[in-house]
Amino acid sequence: MRAKPLADKDISDINQRLDRLIALIERAVPAAAETPDFEAADAFVWQPAGRRLQPVRRVNRVDIGLLKGIDRARDILTDNTERFAKGLPANNVLLWGARGMGKSSLVKSAHAAVNAAGGTPLKLVEIHREDIETLPDLMAAVRGSKYRFILFCDDLSFDHDDTSYKSLKAALEGGVEGRPDNVAFYATSNRRHLLPRDMMENERSTAINPGEAVEEKVSLSDRFGLWLGFHKCSQDEYLAMVRGYVGHFGLKIADEALVADALEWSTTRGARSGRVAWQYVQDLAGRLGVPLTG
């Protein structure tokens, strides 16, 4: 018995249903990750939504010679970065301490300084704090590349009920595959242990074994083999920062007037730091009518 041919209306209805089914499948199945073009730039930003690396054509950074008052941290980080770029053993790094003292600036400047020395370019990839759970995906994207990568997270910290720190612990040292040989992880934070003290104390007071609870929290920082502390700067260090910027940009002002003006600026801000020094120099340049270029 021959089947009855479908009417045009029935065929149209079937096609519409198939189109809706295909659309549902496409939304449910993530798109295939793009193959990163690592030669497009020396710095990238991780975009977890599309599992892609967005090239950064111009990185916001300063010359490493302008970072004053952090000489020891500068030398240690640069040495660690140079060894990593050469394929030698190097550590993950946690830069922690006072706000505005150049932690993130140092990471970007050290990356530029090492690349300027020649050799295979070292890539800097920024991953945002809220995307830290996708760190394993980022590591998978760069694993096996001929390039070496510094994965950088600025202002890394964790709040109450935030369990993404466990993903970071596993990605840095744990798991079957472990951290790729061509990857190092640099992070900055105002906290040495990345977790608020009251969160750790709460864990201590409610756990069956308080020591083990705190150990779980503190062990995150242990994944960083190198800790670099940044502390509030002295008045002399603050003025050295100001003078460094003024000389670099060729701002014309008598030193006596500069000192008095810069100290008054820091007093109104209630702080002395590299960030305050830079903000003062921006204000000074604006008053002098000099653009800050180069």
Q: What does this entry show, briefly?
A:
With 294 residues, this protein is α/β, with parallel strands linked by helices.
Based on the model shown, name its key terms.
single chain, 294 residues, alpha/beta, Rossmann fold, 2 domains, seven-stranded mixed beta sheet, 13% strand, elongated
What structural class do you assign from the helix and strand content?
Answer: alpha/beta
The proportion of strand residues reads 5-15%
| The named CATH superfamily of the largest domain | P-loop containing nucleotide triphosphate hydrolases
What percent of residues adopt helix (DSSP H or I)?
Answer: 40-55%
Question: Outline, from the CA principal axes?
Answer: elongated
| CATH architecture annotation of the largest domain | 3-Layer(aba) Sandwich
- Kindly provide the radius of gyration, computed on alpha-carbon positions and rounded to a whole number of angstroms: 25 Å
Please name the CATH topology of the largest domain. Rossmann fold
Structural summary, described in words:
The protein has helices at residues 8-28, 71-85, 103-116, 135-142, 164-172, 197-206, 210-222, 235-249, 255-269, 274-288; strands at residues 43-47, 52-55, 93-97, 122-126, 148-153, 183-189, 226-230. It is an alpha/beta fold. The chain starts with 7 loop residues before the first helix and ends in a 6-residue tail after the last helix. The relative contact order is 0.12.
Strand and helix layout:
Elements: H1 8-28, E1 43-47, E2 52-55, H2 71-85, E3 93-97, H3 103-116, E4 122-126, H4 135-142, E5 148-153, H5 164-172, E6 183-189, H6 197-206, H7 210-222, E7 226-230, H8 235-249, H9 255-269, H10 274-288
Parallel strand pairs: 1-4, 3-6, 3-7, 4-5, 5-6
Antiparallel strand pairs: 1-2
